[in-house]
Amino acid sequence: MSIEDTKAIGNRFIAIFNEQNPAIADEIFAPNFTARLPSAPSLDREGWKAYLGVFRTGFPDLYLEAEDMVATDDRLIIRVILHGTHQGDFQGMAPTGKRVAFTGIAMFRIADGQAVEHWGEMDILGMMQQLGAIPCPG
Q1: Is there a contact between 33 and 118 (Cβ–Cβ < 8 Å)?
Q2: What is the dihedral angle through the alpha carbons of 31, 22, 48, 101, rounded to the nearest 10 degrees?
Q3: Between residues 138 and 134, the one the model is more confident about
Q4: What is the mean pLDDT of residues 15-35?
Q5: Interatomic CA distance for residues 42 and 62, integer angstroms
Q6: 129: helix, coil or strand?
Q7: Domains defined along the chain, listed by start
Q8: Between the CA atoms of 30, 118, 11 and 15, what dihedral angle is there, to the nearest 10 degrees?
Q9: C-beta neighbour count of 82 within 10 angstroms
């Protein structure tokens, strides 16, 4: 794969959020896809879509802003800011109506034109502080 092809997968990943279309995952994630995300067991493609659904329930307007995208022929790293309004239940927390913006990094291993592995990190602590669920230091 070329670097441009790898970046195209990154742009489709962003579209999952910004077009609110989790079905795009079926296009870019391989059938043997594995995701490793904070506070979750390893997830397959369907598990990843369910994990996203938890965020989409709590933040129906969730969108992703890509700050950086670095690609090789088989690796992809995207540094992002996620934005949304807490309008639904999120991990047992009733909607607050508060807007949040929190950072994340998505890393992928690409093979045969699809993502086969994904590692993600998100600033969940910062998001929960913005919601008032956890006090800010000081």
Answers
A1: yes
A2: 150
A3: 134
A4: 96
A5: 23
A6: helix
A7: 3-131 (3.10.450.50)
A8: 80
A9: 19
